[in-house]
Design a protein that fits this description.
By secondary structure, this protein is of the alpha+beta class. The chain is 32% helix and 29% strand. The protein has one domain: Alpha-Beta Complex (Maf protein). The strands form two sheets. Strands 2, 3, 4, 5, 6, 7 and 8 form a seven-stranded mixed β-sheet that branches.
Length: 196
């Protein structure tokens, strides 16, 4: 569907982000960025997501100055608290119990950086997600599947965790991990890709 004018690198090991880019017909390589992902004191969730995306892109652009780096970072936030990936099943259950019955934000920061071409663009996208309310035994059963352990906020809307979500307001792909419409518009705006 699209062809890249500049070789693309996805700075993420996320299979969901990979699938999104594949769905556009793009050819790209994968090189996950290795950076410190610790929030700064009192750092707002949207600022943190954006900083992570930009830091990932900048780290890889030094190694690949002739390529275009696409980087993203997704966080779940409730009351300005960042919910990252749970460290263990017990923490996953705590996250789910705190999020259930409430509306939280899923924020993805993304960055597009092509150093040789003087292209640098970044932004954030926020989707409001409202959870239903479930008994602890149901949440524990979900945790037992192992699905929550590699996902921000301890759930994935695209898989088993779909049942948790009562409603969303905003981009679905953003909740999965990449605001596809916004990213595509950025890539087209800077003439990084073109339609076949």
């Amino acid at each position: 569907m699209f062809t890249a004018r500049i070789p693309l690198i996805l700075a993420s090991a996320s299979p969901r982000r990979k699938d999104f880019l594949n769905s556009l017909g793009l050819t790209f390589s994968i090189d996950p960025a290795d950076i410190d992902e610790t929030p700064l004191p009192a750092e707002a969730p949207d600022a943190f997501a954006q900083r992570m995306a930009r830091d990932k892109a900048q780290a890889l652009s030094i190694l690949h100055p002739h390529k275009c780096i696409i980087a993203a970072d997704t966080v779940v936030a409730l009351d300005e608290r960042i919910y990252g990936k749970p460290e263990n099943p017990e923490q996953a259950l705590i996250f789910l119990k705190q999020l259930q019955g409430r509306t939280h934000q899923v924020i993805t920061g993304y960055s597009v950086l092509a150093r040789q071409y003087n292209i640098e663009a970044w932004s954030t996208e926020t989707t409001m997600v409202t959870f239903g309310h479930f008994e602890t035994s149901v949440l524990q059963s979900y945790v037992n599947t192992g699905d929550p352990l590699d996902k921000a906020g301890a759930y994935g809307i695209q898989g088993i965790g779909t049942f948790l979500v009562h409603s969303i307001e905003g981009s679905y792909s953003n909740v999965v991990g990449l605001p596809l419409t916004q990213l595509l518009n950025t890539l087209l705006q800077y003439n990084i890709i073109y339609p076949d």
